[in-house]
Design goal:
By secondary structure, this protein is an alpha/beta fold. Helix content is 32%, strand content 23%. It is built from nine helices and 14 strands. Helix 4 links the parallel strand 7 and strand 8.
Length: 257
Amino acid sequence: MGQPMVFFDIDGTLYDYDKRLPDSAKRAVLKLKEKGIPVAIATGRGPFMFEELRKELGIDMFVSFNGQYVEAGGEVIFHAPLSVDELASLEKEADKRDHPLVFMQRDRMIANRKHHPVVEQCIATLKVDLPSYEPNGYHDVNTYQTLIFCTAEEEGFYHENFPNFHYIRWDDHSVDVLNAGISKAVGIRKLVEHLNVRMEDVYAFGDALNDIEMMQEARKGIAMGNADEEVKRAADWVTKAVDEDGIEYGLKYVGLI
């Protein structure tokens, strides 16, 4: 076995249900760093949404937007912006169905509706600032992920009519939209290649559907005790829940701390 590297999801993995970092998780991550084990974040969030967490843990490597944008030490390793033309077509069809959109960019997120209650309700659960209203704001700045606010039943239309996109539901009322063929696993591969780390030396912790690909790609995929059942089935092992010191327990179990 070569140099191990550990990737952590944020929500439900590093962050508890109140979007706070448990003391045990912070302690465990810092122990990894003390041992010289590289640590990175792999999340569906945009970089602007977890700056404080990176600073608190001293982490400067991350896979964000579900694999669409990767940085290491301030250097952009990989990025795959969404097509502006495709986004314009998507917005046109979403408008017909009264489905608001939020466009996620490196340093901000913008909405195509003002003060939409469903948008505000969903974004509020992430404990971040609400998106600003900026029509056509995706034309001049790269957009790496889009949120469609619709039900699971309504989502099928987009799968059928926009096959160049990949869809990952994160809320009963919202689904992430990214490029087809992109996932956290793709972003992780780009980063480990840059660092000359082997995928067979990677450990990945997660709890949600967008974590399945990276856990299957890693040497050991570890699901949190609070993870979706489908995620647990895809994992190599299941640790305790995030609010039961799951990160620390899991890292001890695999012998990394």
